[in-house]
Write the structure tokens for this entry.
Amino acid sequence: MGLFILRRTGVMILTALCLTFIVFFMTNLYPNLEKLAKTQGDMRMSDEAVASWLESRGYMEPLALKYGQWLGVAPGWVKDTRDGIRGRCIKGAVTPEIAAEAQRFCGILQGDWGYSTVSKTDVNNVIWKRLGLTGKLMFWVLVLMVPTALIVGILAGMREGSATDRSLSTVSILTTATPEYVSGVIFIAVFASQAVGLRWFSGTANAAMEDATFRNFFLPVLTISLYGMGYIARMTRASMTEVMAAQYIRTARLKGVSFANVVLKHALRNALIAPFTVIMLQFPWLLNGVVIVETLFSYKGFGSLLVDSAGNNDIEMLLAVSVVSVVVVLVTQLISDIGYVFLNPRIRIS
């Protein structure tokens, strides 16, 4: 197991480097850099002025060197400009004496995520706050979505073809087929608008960023949960149906084991292997796929930060968002692979 985890961690790091390099390459294309220079300087800047602005801020360094500086494995750039000494590890333009005392390496590995050209602050001050807000939303979504989906899937798969199976399967398909922007609008119109009169919940989750309550936070949680719930329930139902038809289940029934014990002690553990993978896949989806819900309910989380960074050409912020997203995807996949072994001892690591 230790060797397996070590090997998978190595592959995970290599994959993360490849993916982040692709994002780094795309965000550092010259048209993006030119747009950044004109946004930060003057939209009527000449090509020479744009090149001078980019050169003075280290954007014209070779791509591989810039990537190494961003990671923190290569010394940060230093430029002597008319305003003073500028550098990646230097905030603003300073005197040579102050520049000499600055650290040489300042990248992701040193905990320096860069400087946001839009919010005019360190990326660290923004990204972790937004990630915490989405983490709070993810937690309550999982609390509602996972147990409900598993119960629905197990009840449907216990007796294939029954009225309960058909009813629950229909509900699962409907929830999966209904996009969040449709169900969210319906919930707001029915439960939060003056038109219907059922003002049970708040139509916005903006207040939930500081103080989450049942009234201002339940609708976005329910909107996201319903969409993912149907997918997990259908996968659980299919897995449960397959297990219930297995030979060892029929043998246990013939031995006189009660139906409840057959389900709980024999079928359930094997039936949860496939849904476990689906549940782990919900983490990357929840992290970046809730943009619509966050926008609909005015909740400024990680998803909306991704959209804002891309729309405003905030390169450093966009790179930081991509790193967090890649790490979450790879870590959840590693946990999923390890979980296979514990859920089913018959699975062996070669």
